[in-house]
Structure formats: C-alpha cells, structure tokens
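Sequence of 6-phosphogluconate dehydrogenase, decarboxylating (Photobacterium arenosum).
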Amino acid sequence: MKGDIGVIGLAVMGQNLILNMDDHGFKVVAHNRTAAKVDEFLNGPAKGTKIQGAYSLQELVDKLEAPRKIMLMVRAGDVVDSFIEQLIPLLDKGDIIIDGGNSNYPDSIRRVDYLKDKGLRFIGAGVSGGEEGARFGPSIMPGGDAEAWPFVKPIFQAIAAKTEQGEPCCDWVGESGAGHFVKMVHNGIEYGDMQLISEAYHFMKTGLGMTHEEMEQTFRDWNETELNSYLIEITADILAYRDEDGEPLVEKIMDSAGQKGTGKWTGINALDMGIPLTLITESVFARCLSSLKGQREEAEKLFGKTVEAVEGDKAEWLDAVRHALLASKIISYAQGFMLMRQASDDNGWNLNYGNVALMWRGGCIIRSAFLGNIRDAFEADPSLAFLGSDPYFKAILENGMKAWRKVAAKSLEIGLPMPCLTSALTFLDGYTTARLPANMIQAQRDYFGAHTYERIDQPRGQYFHTNWTGTGGDTASTTYDV
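Predicted 3D structure, token representation.
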C-alpha cells in the first residue's frame, strides 16, 4: 500500500514529525540524502512502526499515493531549491511539495509561483515547538497554493497540538508566503519574550540579590498567573537545574546568545514596512551586544561599571517586575500583530488574526495563556489596529503602568540594562501621545533639504516648503519621500 506523505530530512525535527504522523495512522515514507541515516532511523526510533524508507528520490516518489505530498525538513535556503529542482522531473501535475523549514517568506512567494508554472503545488509551512512539539504536537502555519491545502489538511491538523477545547493549532494562513511570514513573526515574538524574561531574571539576581531557589519559585508562582506560558515554565526548570558540583548550571553558561536569523528578518521587514517593532528589534540587538563578550569585559573595567542593589521590600519589587514583564510581553505581541496586518494588507493575504493566535495557543515556543485572550480580542474586532486597545489588554497595561515605570526607572538609575522592557514602555508612551516632536524633525528636514512638510491647519496630503533663512530657494525637493 502506498504512502500518504513523504518526508525528506531525518534530523531531529524530521524524525519526530514522521513518528508523530505514524502515531496518527498515516503511512509515511522517509528519505535522507545520506542513505545510512535512513537505515539508522528505520532500525532505531522507527523500529516496529509502519514507516517505510526510500533510498532515492525516485523510490520516494514511486512509493507515494497521488497526488504526492512531499515535505522537506531540510536547512533553509539553497538546499530547499536543490531538492525542488531534483523533484520536479519526477513529479506529476498536481503533486505537492511542502517546505517545513524556517525559510524566508520571499523564497516561499517565489517557489509558489515557480512550481505553479510547472503544474505543481507548493506549501510553505512554519513549524514551531522544537523537537518535543514535532513529536507530540507542534503548531503548524501553512500558506502557499490554496489548492494544496485540502490534501494536507487531514495530516497537519491531526498531528498538530490541540487547545483545551480540542481545536488543532493549525489552519490555513493564506496565499503565497503567508505561512512563513507568520512563522517569522512568531520567532520574532519569541526573541522578545526570551529577552524580557532574561531581563526580569537579571533584575532579580543582580538588583534584588535573590538566590536561584527564590527565583525558581518566583517563576513557578508567576506561571500560575496571566504570565502562564511555556517560556516561563522552562525558566523555572532552568533555574532549578544543578551541575555535577551542585551549583546552578545556568551561571556556567557563556553569556553570548546565538541566533539563526528569523528575529533579524522580522526587524528588517518591520523597517521596510514602516512598523515600529521596537521591542523585537531591541531583542535582536541585545543578542548582538551579548556576542561582544571580550569588548564588554574590557569596557566594564574601563568604566568601573557597578550595579547598585535595589533597596526596599523584595515582595513589592517582585510584584512590580511581574506587572512590568506582563505589560511588556503584551507590547511584544501587539507589535507583532501590527507587522502581520501591514504585510497582509501589502500582499492581499487577508490574514485571520484570531486564527493566528489560536495556532500559537499550543505546541509552539511562545504558547501562553493570554493567546486565548488575543483570539477573543480579534474575534470581537477583526479590524483591531493595536492589541492594547482591546478592553482586556488595556486594563492590564493601565493597571501595571505604575509598577512598569517603577521597574524601568530603577533599572536606569542603578545601571542595569533592560532594553526590551524599557523600549516597550517608550513605545506605548509614544503610541498614546497625540502630538509627538516629529514636527521639529520635519522642520529640520525642510530647512536643510527642502523636503517639505504638512501643516496641522491644512488638509492632509498638502505639502509646504519654507525658505527658512531668506537665502535658500523656494523650490521643494522631489528626490525624497516625506
């Protein structure tokens, strides 16, 4: 009997997705460029299952039911294109290629069009949840050729994580590169969440002088509040973990964070689209700064840098940090949804933001309790421009404002870097300020470059230029956008 789906790539994510599919009754054919990997998998994790192996792409294609569904779980970039080129001559009209890696969404846009011209269908599916999610239920974000979705929907929704109500954390995202764009934003929010939690940990450890046992318990307590989330949960576990000598392992880890590019892509797209994704972009820069380990050590000596202890009631400060972390986290998600809305408008994707929140409710790295509230917010108002304007989130931001400012101010006062927490507050202050000082910037631009400006006492869209010195010209620049 022929297979339901083929999977190329037997690294940990590929293997676990295959095992997940097998658990749900789907017949899977596995292939890897290195034949020995296929044997290792079939004689190891896949032993005793119905999973079949294929030692060539032709064998893989021959073993699949039409229309063939082949999922690539390989490194993003040229490797994906290479496999696509090798598969094209082996496939028939209507067959489906799925890219389950962390591809950049413009590549998915290109691949959808390229394969459609050849009579084939392409899906770019973001998969989140790490190895555990892949094995027992990830969040899956598919987009691309809509004609392909009905054929893969039963498989993807079966293997995806489920909400408490049994809803699959997988649904069709949209045309073209929508799936990988949403996954990119997911990863950007993940960067922000991780940095915010790290800043809270830094405040507790360095500012409040807390022990690892105290910090662990604090994060466990917070996980019983609105902060309930996978990342809060694992932070408690990390703080509890001891090395062989009984000391906290986390303190022996080099403070130089790596990255694979999706956070950077999120920031670049935000800049291109004019969306103020300040918190997520700061989280990327925080990782860049962390990588300058040697320079930071020398600079600390040069400046004689010290961090003052935070004085006052520890319990009150911890409550303030909790409020500040929750409020900042809301801003991170709000900015991410602003970026998705702009991309959806620009590309005609018609994204369903409530569905996106549902897909992130389980299985993925940023799964958290308040994603249910985000879904409710967008179901109540699909045109919601800013998540913080929803009554539920507005109340949290307002109720936590005093504590948020207290923590931000104290971090600046004692010299403790908290770039994401403070940028989130600055963003909200800017977003809720009707009159910003950008009028001065426009005046300066017009003064030195005749770039023109709009006036508040004239209709929008009318542009003016002033000869500020009496020696300049009256001709406005036409080379730059205002």
